[in-house]
Design brief:
Blueprint: H1 33-61, H2 68-72, H3 74-91, H4 98-122
Length: about 130
């Protein structure tokens, strides 16, 4: 069978690249798919650690909210989405539509955080309430 004709099969993680970018400015980062995956796994660990840290600030924020509207904080959401799109532009290293990927990831993450923050909010007592 000729190279690249197998379909429905995972790529060989130790195999040589099967395709090349036509952009002469592109510089490969890894020699094998296994090396690519190891770096992605390393980054995933760091990203999840940072999401876990962010989650604790989201949890803490519930203490400062008066009602469900304040938990969802639509103006703050818009501010965060604008900020992360700008950060994506600033940190982009040549990945087309990175701002869209970051925007989609943050929209999903923020929605999940708000749902959890709402649960925390609903289970809290009013500050100073000895009976709540």
């Amino acid at each position: 069978m000729t190279r690249g004709t197998l379909t429905g099969q995972e790529p060989d993680p130790q195999g040589a690249p099967l395709r090349e970018y036509t952009d002469p400015a592109y510089r490969p980062l890894c020699a094998t798919l296994s090396e690519v995956r190891a770096n992605i796994d390393r980054l995933d660990d760091a990203i999840v650690r940072l999401i876990a840290e962010r989650a604790m600030y989201v949890k803490d924020a519930a203490r400062f909210k008066r009602d469900a509207f304040q938990v969802s904080a639509p103006a703050r959401q818009a501010e965060v989405f604008d900020k992360v799109r700008r950060l994506a532009e600033r940190h982009d290293q040549g990945f087309e539509n990175l701002d869209q990927v970051v925007d989609a990831a943050y929209r999903a993450m923020v929605a999940a955080f708000i749902a959890n923050e709402q649960t925390y909010f609903n289970n809290m007592k009013i500050a100073g309430d000895k009976h709540g």
